[in-house]
Amino acid sequence: MLCPTYTCTWKEDELLKSSLHDYVLQNLSRSEILDYMKRDFDQYTWCLPTLSRRLAYFGIKYVNYQVGIDHVVAAIEEELQGPGKLLGYRLLHKKIRVNHKLAVPRQLVYDILTSNHDDLLEKRAPKIKRRKRGGIGTFTSLGPNHTYSADGHDKLMGFQRNMFPFAIYGVQDVYSCKLLYVKVGKTNKNPKIIGKWYHEFISRTGVISQILRLDKGSENGHMATIHAYLQSTEFENPEDSVIFGSSTSNKIERWWRELHSRLVKYFKEKFQYLFDQGYYNPDEITDREILALVYLPLVQEEINKFVELWNNHRMRKQNSDLPKGIPNHLYDFPETYGSTECGSRVSEAELEDVKNLADVLDDGAFVDKELERRSKELLPNLSELELTDALEAYLYLKSSMSNYRLFIEVLHSSVPMNITKTPLFLILQSLF
């Protein structure tokens, strides 16, 4: 007798096999994987024993002791050539599993580092911390998409936030600690760019949080207005959906320390080297544009990788009412932790409406188009540039364009607006 369809087709389902493999490499527990399977592959029947049998059928193991030591050593050495040298062995082990698809035990990574790079382990060893003065603030949230914490990070811009054209801006879900997006551009002080990033995120997810937590900076004006406008049907006073406070009391501020110590410092050392050796002049617009052209995509790529690591790492119990667990799982399955989804759905019509009213940038390009065109003529594979080749590429482009003078028109010069804004939007805009 033939088996029912729902029990037979899973053996040929390559997407199922790939998803199971990825979740195991991320070190999710079987119960956490089961939640994703029930949601994403609900055409099949699921329970813990069934999950274990299917993992065994596909030959997927949490630890594969058949992986050759040479492969692990090569993967570690590759990571240590980049920002991976700033990671502790735990995060490095996770990066080896996720990025290199090597299901190796954590102890093996530690042993290789001890044998070949004990100096790096010593640098990352815990230090005695000074006692903090004052009380420690706590963060609370009812569930995912209840409160978003948003802020900018300027450490990569160097002295007086003006040396290097790399500004970072991110948004974090307070309940799950999941990083929703982290963007890098030449500035994080243009409110239209900040608003554009936020609008893109909402358009992608179709969900908006109840509360948006910001600091009182002019760069957040468009973002706050967009949020309040979209929440105008949920709040009697839409401006109450945006909370302002100091950066130091913002949830995402703690995460910037993680990003700085484990990623930003790597790039900052590279850029500082160029400056110290006279290869980069922050007052020369061409130098800034070439540096941004070469490194912006690479910095964004490494940030994306670090965000993925963070969103899939297991957090310990915090000094707050927030639950412990893996940010992605906390965000996707709040009912497992006694919470509920708190976000509001947003229609495409509302998103298009607020996009026009806010006048967010349609062109997100951060590099002069003419410079980009000339650079691609000199380096046709510029978009495929590896991090290890970036320094050489920058010096080559700088030398080749030594006689080229870049002229950039001021963005958004005083052109009369041809968009009729609704009274509600104008009122909200005046508040932020």
Structural class: alpha/beta
CATH architecture of the largest domain: 2-Layer Sandwich
CATH class of the largest domain: Alpha Beta
Overall average pLDDT? 85
| Beginning-to-end CA distance, first to last residue | 68 Å
Query: What is the overall shape?
Result: globular
The fold-level CATH name of the largest domain is Nucleotidyltransferase, domain 5
The largest β sheet comes out as:
5 strands, mixed
- What is the tally of helical segments? 17
Order of helices and strands: HHHHHHHHEEEHEEHEHHHEHHHH
Question: Whole-number radius of gyration?
Answer: 24 Å
Provide the domain count: 3
Q: Largest beta sheet: what is the strand line-up?
A: 3-2-1-5-6
Q: Which stretches are low in confidence, meaning pLDDT under 50 for 5 or more residues running?
A: 1-6, 128-136, 405-419
Task: Please provide the count of β strands.
Answer: 7
Instruction: Estimate the helix proportion, in percent.
Output: 40-55%
Strand content bin: 5-15%
Write up what this structure looks like:
The chain is an alpha/beta fold and 432 residues long. It has three domains: 5-58; 69-123; 147-358, Nucleotidyltransferase, domain 5 (2-Layer Sandwich). The chain is built from 17 helices and seven strands. The protein starts with a helix and ends with a helix.
